[in-house]
Amino acid sequence: MQRTLILKCPLFETLFFRSNRSSSSVTSSRTLTTHIINDDNPLYADVPKPCKTKSERKPYPTPMKILIRRAKEQRESRKAEPCKMLEHAPENGLLVPELIEVAHQVYRARDLLLDGLSKLVNVAIPVKRCRFCFEVHIGHVGHEIRTCTGPKSGFRSATHVWRRGGIADVVHFPHCYHLDDRVGKPRVVHKERFTVQKLPAIVELCVQAGVDLEDYPTRRRTRPVYCVEGRIVDLESGTEVESQSFAHYSLSQSGDTDEQLMCLSEVSAKTMNSWFEMRSGAMRIMEKYSVQTCGYCPEVQVGPKGHKAKACRGAKHQSRAGMHAWQEATIDDLIRPNYVWHVKDPNGSSPLDNSLKRYYGKAPAIVELCVQAGAPVPDEYRSMMRLDVVSPCRDEVDLVA
């Protein structure tokens, strides 16, 4: 937010009117704008706001001018060299060596995250979800903030009706189609939408980056592929690796016993560290391995191209014959953080009041859950949680400016 500083001074008025000879008459009240003060405080970062309307498209992570310039450069390079061997991984079908270990770390962090959430949600901290919308609240008592947008919310004055929630309400992993060969067959057509396996997109990203799972086989090449006039051609034979060591990550019984002896704060801190490790590792992998998302719906597909299944129900899907409007995905599309209201006093009996909602902060549900369980507040979300804001009492709202 920018604030314009206005100075009212007779000296400034005299200089301004003398320089303006075209004005025939001088009024008594004139103002002169000198400079602009920027009031944007980085300590108060707001929650990413959703689309205002359902017809509004998601913002592009990369500007459109850069995308057009890249497309022109690729078109010119294909004209200059119609047949060439791709050199850079993973476009040439090979794995990126430095990201193989990162993929294994992300896969392990996801398992540890789900294991820690099962202990926190089922034992320590209750999770509540609205019966009519997707609102989630972490705590024993649901809040009274009127933000419900579900059916017949007008009859309830937008008040939420709470029920018991689960792990899927705290963190959500969208599913996508599994690609057996991400370079040779990067797309799933509409007729294959029921025959191709689906799995969480974060797991598919780890599989394409180097994690071998027995239930989801994938082709591993040892030689790069060729690009002939924009089409991928595999001219080498016998490039498939037959022997693969499948990854099995299971918590041992001794590990379970050690975690049972751990206190609640240690379990919550370990769970939060797994969350940050998974997100940071996924962001590193997404710099090399492309992930696509629909611009109008939450659909996600890991791979160089989006699938062709006609299942979009977003805005303007009739003009696209049900096809998705694919664009570059972000980390929030791959691992969706469900933002909830921050409760400063989890043991308090009074719920969050609707008239004081501008004094409350927000945080991802996984962060709020771990903080209430005893984990330290991460520095990335201190400003968003409004920890330095003291909310007034209900009878003091009218006295606050």
TrEMBL record:
APO domain span: 129-215, 293-379
Name of the protein in its database record: APO domain-containing protein
Short name of one Pfam family: APO_RNA-bind
GO terms for MF: RNA binding
Protein source organism: Stephania cephalantha
Superkingdom classification of source: Eukaryota
PANTHER family reported in the protein's UniProt record: EUKARYOTIC TRANSLATION INITIATION FACTOR SUI1
